[in-house]
Amino acid sequence: MMSLEQIQSFLSVYETGSYSAGGRKIGKDRTTVRERVVAMEEMIGEPLFIIEGKKAKPTSLADALYKRAWNINKQALDFNQAAFAANHVQLTELVIHHHALTSIDMLADVDRAIGERFPYLKINWFQRHREESFADLEKGRAHISIMPTIGNALLKRDVGAINVGAERFAVYVGKHSPLANKEKVSVNELTTEVQLVSESAQHAHLAYINVASQQHMVSNSELLMSLLSSRGWTALSRVNAQKYVDSGEIVEVDIEELTQSYVAGFVLFYSLAFENHDVVKNVIRIVREACETHLS
């Protein structure tokens, strides 16, 4: 009988196109993956892959077996998650991921509420991009993640999801910018100024108001605000920009051609391995309540 490890090795090679890449995908070396696939081929009596250079091309038999192999692996993962959740181990540490665009004030409120409800719980906050966060949720290395939406791509990941609201974005300039005192600013005027683009927004595929001919990518939010004080413009979440507006560092500008502000939806994702755990269920409730206060 074929083992789950052999089936997982077959899947990894089929999906990546080589033994080396397949090994990296499942955390095994190339030799181990190849040995498992060869053992399957010997049991079946037919080849599953044809080697062409560095590529492993699936045979028609591999194509026919792939969907069933995928289902077997999915069922095994689901069983593992259910068994782990049923164990009801006491959580002493909680891992929450958030995107750089997520409201900082909202996250602070969530932290305070969790601390009051579970004073013994160690809370680890990690800023992550969507794909790395999903991978940790699927493997049970993280419990909750708050991320921007991206169409229907969420359906392809083995995580739970709850829509929690949306954040509004607007265009901002430094207080000394020639655009700061204008009643209306045209899109044409924005094209002639340097646009400071948040790397996090790009990774989230939030392609809002990308109109400038000269765009500078910035990964650090504090650096972005510092650069904005001397030149250019940027698009920011209104919630995260408010403290800088209140301090007089930046100014929101009204764009003539925009009839309403850009809105980005946010989703609370959670690990299916912990969906029945009392602590995680309470934390999900806390996050949803905070989102109702801070998001539209």
Automatic annotation (TrEMBL):
Pfam families recorded: HTH_1, LysR_substrate
UniProt family annotation: Belongs to the LysR transcriptional regulatory family.
Domain of life: Bacteria
Record-level Gene Ontology MF annotations: DNA-binding transcription factor activity; transcription cis-regulatory region binding
UniProt entry keywords in alphabetical sequence: DNA-binding, Transcription, Transcription regulation
Domain HTH lysR-type: 2-59
UniProt xrefs under InterPro entries: LysR_HTH_N, LysR_subst-bd, WH-like_DNA-bd_sf, WH_DNA-bd_sf
Name of protein: HTH lysR-type domain-containing protein
Organism: Enterovibrio coralii
